[in-house]
Amino acid sequence: FSSEELTRHFVDRIEARDDRYNAFITPTPERALEQARAADRRIAEGNAGLLTGLPLAHKDIFCTRGVKTSCGSKMLDNFVSPYDATVVEKLAEAGMVTLGKTNMDEFAMGSSNETSYYGPVKNPWDESKVPGGSSGGSAAAVAARLAPAATGTDTGGSIRQPAALTGLTGFKPTYGRVSRYGMIAFASSLDQAGTLTISAEDAALMTQAMAGFDERDSTSAQESVPDYLAALGQDIKGLKIGVPPEFFDEGLDADTRKAVDDALDVYRQLGAEIREVHLPHLDLSVPTYYVVAPAECSSNLSRFDGVRFGYRCENPKDLLDLYERSRGEGFGAEVKRRVMTGTYVLSAGYYDAYYLQAQKTRKLIRDDFLKAFEEVDVLMGPTTPTPAFGIGEKTDDPITMYLNDIYTIAVNLAGLPAVSVPAGLVGGLPVGLQIIGNFFDEGRLLNVAHQFQ
Ligand code: GLN
To answer: So what's the ipTM on this one?
Structure first.
């Protein structure tokens, strides 16, 4: 069948079913069909790659030329991007067809998709549950097969956590592997683009197209990009897997633990060697993150001032009133909480006590991982402490919400690549196995994930 037929299938499915899930903020059906016809012409000309003509959805954090790019916020509800993010551009060059822009937590701040200006997303496995966040719209879209694959971003777990809670493969590459150009910034030293897919193979294919140096992103890595697909299918006999007991703390639900233990048994049967390694500073990762990420976000979000683009309040009295009311009316509660926390920890009197201290603990966390990778090839543990929780269950208590990311956040502080793969069902809901790799070891990581599938 043609790309046009395939695209039509997904366009119709979104139209028929997304009322239930709220996975899309902006579906782009006409544009998708146009891109599909262009892909069909490319295929007919013999000028196609493996991804040409395949549809996908983009998280609404990626600037998309001529399309509303809201970042899940009222602040950008009227923003039509004048340019494409590098990720959008590269996947379009590979011939992929964009079905639309997916729902997300406001400015990617959240773990449940409940902070979106466009309303919560429902988990297709159980519509009373959250899909995870912040890439919850992308996760729900793929889990409900409204799209075969989607992009996401991961600052503290926002690809891996929703992938785990919706039964998908969520892959976050090494920091710097994929360009951040045109990806609306939350915390620039942590943000990384990646994929939510049905398999590790799909993740490998898409990452191949997305990765690589980009001079428009000053932290983009100069490393060459290996052949990820060729890395799949390699024997993992003798692979050294480290299992940190710190991932198996008292917060971990017993059935989720059992699913992870069963997954480790599969790897044992495949000939891997499992040993205990320690990450002694892991318990510092959530407090460290909630200083570093808000600090960077308070700086990044200062550009939304009601002047050049985005939301502007009505009839401002003067410039200060314009700033205050545009930001006060344009941002939601969680974003305001982060901006205020960030401004506080960066202020002159508190900088040493909080921000500087957090930078030091961040280094300790990174060094723990580097030490572990002297002994083992990959690390494994659960992606989340529990399966998906109920919509509204944690909204009144930010700390409980923040603790949902306890196993994913350290990876971002260190800048490492990691993947969550479906590990089984707990009470009918999916949970994930998290696999963490060494810097730029994405090929091995994807192969280890692939062997389990
Ligand atoms: N849940 C975390 C937060 O709220 C991580 C979000 C993310 O990775 N974008 O900040």
So the answer is: 0.98
